[in-house]
Amino acid sequence: MNFPDNLKYTKDHEWVRVEGNVATIGITDFAQGELGDIVYVEINTIGELLGHEAIFGTVEAVKTVSDLFMPVSGEVLEMNETIDANPAIVNKDPYGEGWLVRVSMTNTAELNDLLDAAAYKELIGQ
């Protein structure tokens, strides 16, 4: 499994890439593997201001539906339109083309509570 060192991770298996005040969020390689083939991603929170750990959408796989949790507080700026038409891209490239949303962060201090790659690997037993 792949866990890039330049990302932050949550205990709920989301990843965060920070560029300025914008966080790009997706699910980890571990999460997509556990879910199996992803068939649908639902995100209806574009334009909404959401708090840390609020649900911002769901991922539907063949075997289950899983909630998506905000790793940081902020306004959901956009959803990845590519995954709307082709949700399987989340399985193929979870850290690249398979990103889920971009968020304008309102509290960057929350990034300090996220895990680095080593801590995330330990969390999942890697």
Which descriptors would you attach to this protein?
single chain, 126 residues, alpha+beta, OB fold (Dihydrolipoamide Acetyltransferase, E2P), 6-stranded antiparallel sheet, 3-stranded antiparallel sheet, 4 helices, 9 strands
Cα radius of gyration in angstroms: 13 Å
- Structural category: alpha+beta
pLDDT < 50 stretches = none
> So what's the overall shape?
globular
Mean pLDDT: 95
CATH T-level topology? OB fold (Dihydrolipoamide Acetyltransferase, E2P)
Strand line-up in the sheet with most strands: 1-2-3-9-8-5
CATH class: Mainly Beta
Helix content percent band: 10-25%
Would you give an account of this structure?
Helix content is 18%, strand content 35%. It is an alpha+beta fold and 126 residues long. A hairpin with a 4-residue loop joins strand 1 and strand 2. The relative contact order is 0.26.
Task: Note the topology.
Layout: E1 8-9, E2 14-19, E3 22-27, H1 29-35, E4 38-42, E5 49-50, E6 55-61, E7 65-69, E8 74-79, H2 81-85, H3 89-92, E9 101-105, H4 117-123
Antiparallel strand pairs: 1-2, 2-3, 3-9, 4-6, 5-8, 6-7, 8-9
What is this entry, summarized?
With 126 residues, this protein is of the alpha+beta class.
